[in-house]
Design brief:
single chain, 103 residues, mainly alpha, two-stranded antiparallel sheet, 2 strands, 33% helix
Length: 103
């Protein structure tokens, strides 16, 4: 059992995701950083000043849909990587739609 801070709800789901991730952010570049100094994976770990979150492995999935995902479709993310990955996914979605309704 960890002594790290846990969320108030869905603690078993959160713990399952974190144990799989070894309590380390699982971003491997989706945020736009290569994380080359740390074997291509974000070095941030849960606890202290960094609190990881369990969020969809695919950052383009909206939060409304994320609440029903099973642990296998979630990843451990630090807030910096998650925000940047969602921003990148949103830009990609908008770029795909560009010209969709051009007449």
């Amino acid at each position: 059992m960890t002594t790290e801070p846990l969320p108030l709800a869905a603690t078993s789901l959160f713990r399952a995701v974190m144990v799989t991730a070894d309590w380390r952010c699982q971003c491997t570049g989706q945020c736009g950083h290569r994380h080359t100094r740390t074997e291509n994976r974000c070095p941030r770990t849960h606890g202290g000043r960094v609190l990881l979150m369990a969020a969809p492995a695919d950052p383009s999935i909206p939060e409304r849909a994320a609440v029903v995902l099973p642990p296998g479709e979630l990843r451990a993310w630090c807030s910096g990587c998650h925000i940047a990955a969602r921003r990148t996914a949103t830009r990609a979605e908008l770029a795909w739609q560009d010209g969709l309704f051009d007449i």
